[in-house]
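Example record

One chain of 98 residues, shown exactly as stored in the release files.
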Amino acid sequence: MLGNVAAALGWQRAALGFAIASAAVLGLAVLRGHWLTAAGFSPLWGAFTFPLAATAGLWGAASRRADRCRRGPAGRGQPCGAACRSCCGSGGPGPRAG
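Predicted structure tokens for this chain:
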């Protein structure tokens, strides 16, 4: 959830940091999946759906923001300049607007 909020606020680096952290947590859950599910099926397995959906949403939001900055605000592959600074906090791939 923190990563989704960071992406919505335009804090690209924070959103990517949370996306990387969520990948690590998801990897740990996969590695420990047997321990998590050893007792057999339970209706409480529904609790797995929220973290998976939130992680997928975060990865989608973070990648859309990064892609927008990479392609430029109009999507034509032109340097972003000041427009990119407003979406992801950096000058983007193009020259910085003064």
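Notes: The chain has one domain: 2-88.
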